[in-house]
Amino acid sequence: MSTLTTEELSATTLLRFATAGSVDDGKSTLVGRLLHDSKSILTDQLEAVERASASRGQEGPDLALLTDGLRAEREQGITIDVAYRYFATPRRRFILADTPGHVQYTRNMVTGASTAELTVILIDARNGVVEQTRRHAALAALLRVPHVVLAVNKMDLVDYQESVFAAIAEEFTAYALELGVPEVTAIPISALAGDNVVEPSANMDWYGGPTVLEHLETVPVAHDLSHCHARLPVQYVIRPQTAEHPDYRGYAGQIAAGSFHVGEQITVLPSGRSTKISGIDLLGKPVDVAWTTQSVTLQLEDDIDISRGDLIVPSKDAPPTTQDIEATVCHVADAPLTVGHRVLLKHGTRTVKAIVKDIPSRLTLADLSLHPHPGQLVANDIGRVKIRTAEPLPVDSYADSRRTGSFILIDPSDGTTLTAGMVGESFASPEPVKDAAEDDGWDF
């Protein structure tokens, strides 16, 4: 298989990213500016925003209205729900999640960033790093978001001073690295004026790094297939039993991670039965290899009892199965999660009965302190839980696989989603701190 160049790779990939920040830091304005200046909005959408802005007595269009679609959001001038936007440039396709900034909407930020490969955290240049900034950095670390962009906004209100930007970037980067965030890219911007969002700013000639859009278009997203744990949760068993395909049996699903090859030895979990892949069908055509996010049908050499909820993995890289799961969770329901709570646990395509055996701690994101044995978690709480499942599950650590290391807890009585969970340790091990003497200046 030939290796794609960076340009070819970026043109064929999809980047999921989320925005976060404190109230009034300008998240929705940044998103609106991004869509407007990249010409990703329709004429009638812009006209509707211009009319809404004029009715509120504003001289120009309020670009924040492009994402704040709820009536309550527009009336209050804040973001409440997660707003998803889809757009594309010649170099890459994007799914953007504009998440709320209020503390009481922490669960919404978790929802938006849980599938993101990059998070843009905004800071008001006048206020610097505040408690909510630290909270969002901690959430990005908990969710193992691979790339974090620090957008220091409203630089026009501090006279575009480099010293202001440098101090904020240094403080935030140090805190993020302590949390184990693998990469921080700091960009000084003015979302309202458009500085360094899509076009380079003439007001900050001291900054030589990329604009926000340029970074989004070029940040590496492709997974290194050789280092992924290959996983295929089975969604459906295909048995046409027609005259044309009398003996066809295939196991369909979306590859959650890694790649699968024809001839590869695989194991089906939780049964532990092994065989080889005899064929892979992709979009109705046979292929020799398939990889992450592709929806495929695997054919196997031997007839094995496989059904929806089973997990197909390489035999040499099979995760352990267990009935005891310890995880970090974010509680998203209004009703509390308590010790002894009987729930349904959905992992991949499999749903099993489970019970909450213990809640060892609740995390305070402001200072990362732990409140031991709180007894329950309420809406927006993040804590550690121990869960016992009725059946063994093949779970990965969330640090190894965000797809197969995550789960949700469901209320068995009405199907309400209660909690989102991440298996294993809370935070990644922090990177070694570089000696300042080794660095000649800012690495933008």
Summarize the topology.
Elements: H1 6-12, E1 14-21, H2 27-37, H3 43-55, H4 71-76, E2 83-89, E3 92-98, H5 106-113, E4 118-124, H6 131-142, E5 147-153, H7 162-179, E6 184-188, H8 212-218, E7 232-233, E8 236-238, E9 250-254, E10 259-261, E11 265-269, E12 273-282, E13 285-287, E14 289-291, E15 295-300, E16 311-314, E17 321-331, E18 337-338, E19 342-347, E20 350-364, E21 369-372, E22 376-377, E23 382-394, E24 406-410, E25 417-423
Parallel strand pairs: 1-3, 1-4, 4-5, 5-6
Antiparallel strand pairs: 2-3, 7-16, 8-9, 9-15, 10-14, 11-12, 11-16, 12-13, 12-15, 17-23, 17-25, 18-22, 19-20, 19-24, 20-21, 20-23, 24-25
Structural features, described:
- This protein starts with 5 loop residues before the first helix and ends in a 21-residue tail after the last strand.
- It is an alpha+beta fold and 444 residues long.
- 40% of the residues are buried.
- Helix 6 packs across helix 7.
- The chain has helices spanning 6-12, 27-37, 43-55, 71-76, 106-113, 131-142, 162-179, 212-218; strands spanning 14-21, 83-89, 92-98, 118-124, 147-153, 184-188, 232-233, 236-238, 250-254, 259-261, 265-269, 273-282, 285-287, 289-291, 295-300, 311-314, 321-331, 337-338, 342-347, 350-364, 369-372, 376-377, 382-394, 406-410, 417-423.
- A hairpin with a 2-residue loop joins strand 12 (273-282) and strand 13.
- The chain is 18% helix and 34% strand.
- It is globular.
- Strands 7, 8, 9, 11, 12, 13, 15 and 16 form an eight-stranded antiparallel sheet that branches. The chain has a six-stranded mixed sheet with strand order 2-3-1-4-5-6, with helices on both faces. A six-stranded antiparallel barrel has the order 17-23-20-19-24-25.
